Amino acid sequence: MIEVVSAERCIACDKCVLACPTNVFDTGADGVPVIARQDDCQTCFMCEAYCPVDALFVAPTTHPAAPGGLDETELAADGRLGSYRAHIGWGRGRTPGARLAVGPELPGAARMVAPSAQEPEPAGTTSTTAPAQAGTARKAPTP
Ligand code: SF4
Ligand code: SF4
């Protein structure tokens, strides 16, 4: 559940306000989001993931922390502010989590062949594969 918005770190970009699927935040007069409807939080971590300056902390709980239970200075000191974003590898200089993910082998994956190694298509047929261009390797989008 969303617990902390660090006014010290926030740059008032509104990304968390827009990312939240349940409209938990209001934008404060100074541009810093206010947790206005904490009970509506679904603990989806999207706000923390999108915050570019690691100003948010979503606790991995479904109920609010006890009053005084979470201290912003302590969270910042031990690296928990924005730690979800860091763990999924979003942000400049980080490795996207999808590149590190380990999962079960996909059925048929062993039969997959790179386009350059495939048999040439018979003359007169139409290719459904986009031509590979030298030096145009795809890059993962940067969040
Ligand atoms: S964790 Fe999800 S539901 Fe909760 S405030 Fe953040 S974006 Fe909204
Ligand atoms: S995403 Fe981060 S920097 Fe942007 S408004 Fe929200 S808390 Fe502030």
TrEMBL record:
<dbReference type="InterPro" id="IPR017896">
    <property type="entry name" value="4Fe4S_Fe-S-bd"/>
</dbReference>
<keyword id="KW-0408">Iron</keyword>
<feature type="region of interest" description="Disordered">
    <location>
        <begin position="109"/>
        <end position="143"/>
    </location>
</feature>
<dbReference type="Pfam" id="PF12838">
    <property type="entry name" value="Fer4_7"/>
</dbReference>
<protein>
    <submittedName>
        <fullName>4Fe-4S dicluster domain-containing protein</fullName>
    </submittedName>
</protein>
<feature type="domain" description="4Fe-4S ferredoxin-type">
    <location>
        <begin position="31"/>
        <end position="61"/>
    </location>
</feature>
<feature type="domain" description="4Fe-4S ferredoxin-type">
    <location>
        <begin position="1"/>
        <end position="30"/>
    </location>
</feature>
<dbReference type="InterPro" id="IPR050572">
    <property type="entry name" value="Fe-S_Ferredoxin"/>
</dbReference>
<dbReference type="InterPro" id="IPR017900">
    <property type="entry name" value="4Fe4S_Fe_S_CS"/>
</dbReference>
<keyword id="KW-0479">Metal-binding</keyword>
<dbReference type="GO" id="GO:0051539">
    <property type="term" value="F:4 iron, 4 sulfur cluster binding"/>
</dbReference>
<keyword id="KW-0411">Iron-sulfur</keyword>
<keyword id="KW-0004">4Fe-4S</keyword>
<dbReference type="GO" id="GO:0046872">
    <property type="term" value="F:metal ion binding"/>
</dbReference>
